[in-house]
Amino acid sequence: MLRRLALTTRTVRLRFTALYGVLFLLSGAGLLVITNLVTLGQSHVAPALPPVEQHTLAATQERISRLQAQLLEMEETQTRQLLIGSVVALAVMAMVSLVLGRIVAGRVLRPLRTITAATRRISAENLHERLAVPGPTDEVKDLADTIDGLLERLEDSFAAQRRFVANASHELRTPLATMRARLDVAVAKPEPIPAQTMALADRLRTELDQIDRLLESFLTLARTQHGALPDRATISLGRMVSAALDARAADITARSLTVHDGGIHDSAWTQASHTLVSRMVDNVIDNAVTHNHDGGWIRVTATAADASALLIVETGGRVLDQEQVARLAQPFQRLGVDRTGSGNGSGLGLSIVAAIATAHGGSVDLHARAEGGLRVTISLPLTTAQTGVTA
């Protein structure tokens, strides 16, 4: 609360208000000082007395003394009233100067507030919008035009990157498909094929499949980072997790892994891309299965908490370094072979998970468990389940 109050007191409008208020106040104080000096200077000028006769000298002196006493009393009264009036006028002027300063500051900063609100509204999905601030050519309009130029360059850059991703998706898959087709033709000839050739063909197929998966992961990461969110729908994280575990039942059995149900509820619903969230869930489950020890365990939780749909996947293992774990959300980052005894993986799995969660307004937390192993917590905006939605 104190921090919010401190930030509020440092706004540009408040600084302008203080500046204009002080300037108005100083101007008024100077005007009052000059007025008081001129008035007091004039009040001390004694009027010239006419000459008097000798025989009335004593009476005249007595009368002069009375008049001087009266004048002195009037001057003191006038000075006191003038000072009181000056203080009251200065207080009124201080209040008026603050009000005028705030009004002037608000009018000066109004175009900047408009620019700020419009800039916050513009994101990667509506870069075509422009500020288009009207008015004469001044510093504010120059700033708005500069931001419009920047938005135009960003729009062109995003469009070029999207075209690159779309073209790369086609151009890079074509030679892979051609290589796989030629390999199949070569091993399908009727004459006997040496065993070494068949072994080499199997290795090449494995490498081609790995390249294809790597390419698919890279393109998914690129599309997600550029805001491409297809087939948005209301989906259930719990149902997706159950489907992902069922699809990997054979791999889980082969490695003798134990899956603990930490609470897979049907309350974790979110509005998101079905394709991307399905890939996100598959990646985090694959990561838990692949980077695990034979005979290890996995605990999966899908639930709703506050305004978030949560997916938590935990695995056991050795104690990990939190700094290294935090870097797993970056592309091509691995913990090494000695984490699980397996060097498989492209280093893109958790980075894709993080990119998909961020694109949907969520987050991913990677935490090294104190007892050993890893906990992955995915948070997505919670929404209400819709009738007829079965995702």
- Pattern of helices and strands: HHHHHHEHHEEHEEHHEE
Q: Bin the helical content.
A: 55-70%
Largest sheet composition: 5 strands, mixed
Question: What share of residues are in beta strands?
Answer: 5-15%
Helix-strand category: alpha+beta
Number of domains: 3
Number of helices: 11
The span between the termini is 42 Å
The CATH class designation of the largest domain is: Alpha Beta
Overall geometric form: elongated
**Mean pLDDT across residues:** 79
What does the radius of gyration come to? Answer: 40 Å
Q: How many β-strands, per DSSP?
A: 7
Assembly classification:
single chain
- CATH fold label of the largest domain: Heat Shock Protein 90
Compose a concise summary of this entry.
The chain is α+β, with helices and mostly antiparallel strands and 391 residues long. The chain is built from 11 helices and 7 strands. Strand 4 and strand 5 form a beta hairpin.
Detailed description of the structure:
The chain is α+β, with helices and mostly antiparallel strands and 391 residues long. It folds into 3 domains: 103 residues; 54 residues, no CATH class; 150 residues, Heat Shock Protein 90. The strands form 2 sheets. The protein has a 5-stranded mixed beta sheet with strand order 2-4-5-7-6. It has a two-stranded antiparallel sheet with strand order 1-3. A hairpin with a 2-residue loop joins strand 4 and strand 5. It is elongated. The N terminus is likely disordered.
